[in-house]
Amino acid sequence: MRRQKKNGFFIALAAPGIIWLVLLFIVPFYAVLAIAMGKLNELFESPVAVWNPFAWSSENLIDVWHDIFGSAAFAGPIVVRTIIYVAIASLLCLLIGYPAAYFVARFAGRRKGLFLVLLVAPFWISYMMRMLAWVDLLQTGGYVNKALGWVGISPVNWLGGKPATVVLGLVYGYIPYLILVLYAGLDRIDPALIEAGRDLGLGRIRTFVRVTLPMSRQPILTGLLITVLPMLGDYYTNQLLSGAASTSMIGNLIQGQLGTPGLEGQGAVLSLLLLLVLLVPMIYYVIATNRSSQVAS
Amino acid sequence: MTAPITDQPSAAQTVTAKPRRRMFRRNPWGHPWFLEGFTWLYLLWSLIPIAIAVLFSFNKGKSQATWQGFSWRWYFKDPVNSVLHNPALHAAVIQTVRLSVLTTIIAVPLGVAFALGINRWKGPVPATFNFVMILSFVIPELIFGVAMFFVFTVLFTSVHLGTLAEVLGLVTWNVSWPAIIVQARLVTLGRQYEEAAADLGANRFQAMRRVILPLLGPAIFASAVLVFSGVIDDFVIVDLLSSNAGNTPMSVIIYSTQHGGNGGPALNALGTISLVMSFIIAIIGYIGYRWLTRGERGSRIQALTTIAGSEG
Predict the structure, then answer these.
(1) Shortest Cα–Cα distance, A71 to chain B (Å)
(2) Per-residue pLDDT reduced to its tens digit, B163-177
(3) 3-class DSSP state for residue B261?
(4) Which member of A10, A129, A135 has the closest CB to residue B117?
(5) What interface predicted TM-score (ipTM) does this complex get?
(6) Interface of B with A in 41-100 (CB under 8 A)
(7) A47 DSSP assignment
(8) Sign of the torsion formed by the C-alpha atoms of B91, B92, B93 and B96
(9) Predicted model pTM
């Protein structure tokens, strides 16, 4: 009886949040499913949601299958391109971000506060402003081309559909998140362990390889996830920095179908497929961060 | 800037690069100048483009690429195209502030209550919903935005695309900040404060209100700061859920105008305004967090990382 009462108070506290999540998180995903498995209203070209699982149709699924794997598949190359861009961009994020995070966590000393302020600053600058900055710099008459002009290279049309520009935008956009995760993870490594490595006669590089690197496996993985997950849903970076169909990614495909009459059902299928693929890494991330916060506390 | 005591004597530092590199490898306690240089290069690459973009918001001419002299033209001087006089830009600033305030007011109490309830209510139901909440934290924003778009256009059609839909979407997207941060704080607090309050005769509600909530102050404050600044920065959800110029916030205006080929320094001005807003929130957040945690062990660095959304 007492236990019942004890729980009642906490149930009442949690209830509004739970109801909110049901109505505006779980139900919306069922709506996506109902549209993905739904039909098309031929007259208005609008999606018709089918709420009853027994009446689900595979129309949209088949369409998407043909888009990706069929003979005239236009979505297949987009998927491959997205994977390549995201792989290169996240690898670059790691290669640039790790040394910076490592330095600030281990060697910044009394200037750690200053370095952290500078590392964290991009968090407080809106993503669009940061992309706009590169639009300014990379214009045909922009400073990048002017700088290239001094060394005798003729102006490059950076914003005209260059894959390199899109990858640059992705790296620039998402690297602050990776660095902060890496910093937090590296900062947690007990310096005594590294000193022990040194005392036992390992040089700086071998200490790094044998001690620091194995201990930063977890932050590297979670940091990569925190950059890869949003990159896969990104449609705005390449729209601003390229705008060409030749560089479009999965995000562009989904977002484009959302506003196109007749294609919304396929957009729903694609976003569910993306979710399905990402579910495993997402759950890994949840478990990993849960574990590390339990260890930390 | 002083060299650490363990550093090489200065005579060794002036020798040529090659021996110094060997020194670096041999002497494990020397300062890694190469890493420091690399970090500075990264920081310059990360911050100089922003500084240039801010600079161009003060450009006299229409170019976003060539400096033509300083003016306030794009903020308020230009009678047509300045942020003050262009109705779409003007409305965007107001909409961003409106969304940030409304979302913070709803999401923070909702998330805090959720965290308190979930943390103490044992069983499979709270565990499941905690998992759902964390999923909402890691799910790519586009997938979530698509779900929101469909639910408001197909199921809850009385919620038209616009401010209400944006607020509902943003609250759901941001409620995990207070929920996660407050839960982390509750775990470090443990049960002893509550038990002490109960021993002194407080009932459950009194213990919550008089003991736990004040102890949660810093966490609640930090999450409010994160939600507010998160909404200023948000793009995908508001892009998918806005319907006309009256309910389109700054991020979406910058994107759609620039992408539509009508870019100009007025957009840089808009971006600068959002940057200044975020920085003000960050400074308030940092000072406020330091003040709220003034009695505790805890460093400036910890305050800084907390305000940036990392528990590190």
Answers:
(1) 27
(2) 999 999 999 999 999
(3) coil
(4) A10
(5) 0.89
(6) 42-43, 46-47, 49-50, 52-53, 56, 63-66
(7) E
(8) positive
(9) 0.88
